């Protein structure tokens, strides 16, 4: 197979995705507003959703501001230097651990230029050190450990800082991408879909494929890979733990539901750290440029949206009971088994086709020399791993039940209320079911994300393999869900 000439710094362009510039604008500036909406509408002041939102005919802005905890000093109160400095300090600690701790050097896949990039992998080590420090602090000070109370007290400001950082990184890599030249000795190149010529779209989708920067005293950092697995994924665990601590401060105990979600999500995250090298064959690394889409997704969307359920349960402490707990663990186990075994099968086949675990599998060999599996997990569906991933999303939301709660004043004497230490009472009330728009959002969003990824991958593979891909699809008919889709 002839490789693309190394003189080509810019792969061939292809069409817009995400509905082009209008879609890029909507996602870049609409999704941050959606995250703010979740943060304010589902709160520990009045309820989830805020009671005023359930009575739109009598809704007043002043009433809504009181119920959602809108800052007294207005929009400027959404940000603070204290939260921004703390968040930047967290990033700095992560960078220092990245440099100081032992690491494995792994080569990435072949680039269109014919070269390969080297990656430094020690995410498991560095994040384990961080978690150990947090565990030690919690053991010493319990739920009042300053990290947990700081997150609770400055949640909105930390969200704002995260959005600002994602915008700043996206802008930095966009501007810097114009220094990519043909025959780049550092193997820098542009992403195939990231140099459309439209400023907004290219800033959003990512112009450079694998932007890297040399940080003083730290060394070279692959920005995309670092953001994918480090601050956001670690932040996911940290926020979950912060909400467990808040539930304990509110009620003096933690429920099996919030512990279940926190643990199963942590297992999922640890699995990605343990199999860090597997990220090198994902579309995010091999195909997508790094821009606003991935920066926001890694640093904002993942930690703040994926923890909506534990944040909810920190105020409305539902319990699963033994049967419910077993059901959730069984469901997560099934999804994890499909996800991990399918990905392991693919990686084993790519790295060592003679391995006894995969040597019996049948495949189509394309004109490009690639081999497409037609039996095993990948003969069941073209993205069977996505199906396992989606199954895992259900136990993240199901523990919240028919979500929705109202917070009543101390001494209300409501029947069946959860009573906080400060005397306030939490009941489902008229909010019952409405909170599902928040706590079950992840399941719906994740399904849309996976379907979109599947279709993007289908287009990419059709461009790459041509009629061989059409032949493959006739053998492996289902996209994600066998027998359904």
Description:
InterPro entries: ERG24_DHCR-like (IPR001171), Sterol_reductase_CS (IPR018083). Keywords: Lipid biosynthesis, Lipid metabolism, Membrane, Oxidoreductase, Steroid biosynthesis, Steroid metabolism, Sterol biosynthesis, Sterol metabolism, Transmembrane, Transmembrane helix. It is found in: Membrane. It is built from 19 helices and ten strands. The protein is an alpha+beta fold and 485 residues long. A hairpin with a 5-residue loop joins strand 9 and strand 10. Helix 9 packs antiparallel against helix 10.
Count the helices. How many? 19
Average pLDDT, rounded to a whole number, is 92
**So what's the overall shape?**
globular
Percentage of residues in strands: 5-15%
Helix content: 40-55%
**Total number of beta strands:** 10
Label this structure with key terms.
485 residues; alpha+beta; 54% helix; 7% strand; disordered N terminus
Produce the secondary structure layout.
Elements: H1 20-41, E1 47-48, H2 61-68, H3 81-100, E2 104-107, E3 118-121, H4 123-141, H5 146-153, H6 155-176, H7 199-205, E4 212-215, E5 219-222, H8 223-229, H9 231-251, H10 256-274, H11 283-286, H12 292-305, H13 308-313, H14 321-351, E6 363-365, E7 371-373, H15 377-380, H16 384-397, E8 405-408, E9 418-419, E10 425-427, H17 436-439, H18 441-465, H19 467-475
Antiparallel strand pairs: 1-8, 2-3, 4-5, 6-7, 8-10, 9-10
Can you describe this structure in just a few lines?
This protein is an alpha+beta fold. The chain contains 19 helices and 10 strands. Strand 6 and strand 7 form a beta hairpin.
């Amino acid at each position: 197979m002839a490789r693309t000439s190394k003189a080509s710094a810019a792969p061939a362009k292809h069409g817009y995705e995400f509905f082009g510039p209008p879609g890029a604008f909507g996602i870049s500036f609409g999704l941050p507003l959606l995250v703010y909406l979740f943060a304010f509408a589902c709160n520990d002041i009045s309820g989830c959703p805020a009671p005023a939102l359930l009575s739109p005919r009598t809704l007043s802005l002043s009433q809504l501001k009181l119920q959602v905890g809108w800052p007294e000093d207005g929009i400027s109160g959404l940000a603070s230097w204290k939260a921004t400095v703390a968040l930047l300090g967290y990033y700095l600690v992560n960078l220092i651990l990245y440099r100081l701790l032992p690491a494995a050097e792994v080569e990435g896949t072949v680039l269109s230029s014919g070269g390969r990039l080297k990656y430094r992998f020690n995410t498991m080590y560095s994040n384990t050190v961080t978690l150990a420090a947090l565990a030690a602090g919690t053991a010493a000070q319990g739920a009042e450990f300053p990290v947990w109370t700081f997150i609770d007290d400055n949640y909105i400001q930390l969200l704002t800082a995260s959005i600002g950082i994602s915008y700043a990184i996206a802008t930095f890599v966009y501007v810097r991408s114009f220094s990519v030249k043909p025959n780049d000795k550092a193997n820098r190149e542009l992403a195939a879909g990231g140099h459309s010529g439209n400023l907004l779209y290219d800033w959003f989708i990512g112009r450079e494929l694998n932007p890297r920067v040399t940080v003083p005293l730290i060394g070279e950092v692959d920005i995309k890979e670092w953001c994918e697995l480090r601050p956001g994924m670690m932040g996911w665990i940290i926020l979950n733990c912060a909400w467990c601590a808040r539930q304990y401060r509110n009620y003096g105990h933690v429920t099996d539901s919030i512990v279940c979600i926190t643990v199963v999500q942590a297992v999922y995250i640890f699995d990605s750290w343990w199999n860090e090298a597997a990220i090198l064959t994902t579309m995010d690394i091999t195909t997508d440029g790094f821009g606003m889409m991935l920066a926001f997704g890694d640093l904002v969307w993942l930690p703040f949206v994926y923890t909506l359920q534990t944040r909810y349960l920190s105020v409305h402490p539902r319990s699963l009971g033994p049967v419910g707990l077993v059901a959730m663990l069984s469901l997560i186990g099934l999804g994890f088994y499909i996800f991990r075994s399918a990905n392991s099968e693919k990686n084993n086949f790519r790295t060592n086709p003679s391995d006894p675990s995969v040597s019996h599998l049948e495949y189509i060999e394309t004109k490009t020399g690639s081999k497409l599996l037609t039996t095993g997990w990948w003969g069941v569906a073209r993205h069977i791993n996505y199906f396992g991933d989606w199954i895992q999303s259900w136990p993240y939301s199901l523990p919240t039940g028919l979500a929705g709660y109202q917070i009543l004043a101390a001494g209300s004497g409501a029947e069946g209320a959860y009573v906080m230490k400060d005397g306030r009472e939490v009941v489902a009330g008229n909010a019952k079911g409405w909170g599902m728009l928040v706590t079950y959002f992840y399941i719906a969003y994740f399904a849309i994300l996976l379907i979109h990824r599947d279709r993007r991958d289908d287009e990419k593979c059709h461009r790459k393999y041509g009629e061989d891909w059409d032949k493959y699809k006739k053998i492996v008919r289902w996209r994600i869900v066998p027998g359904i889709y």
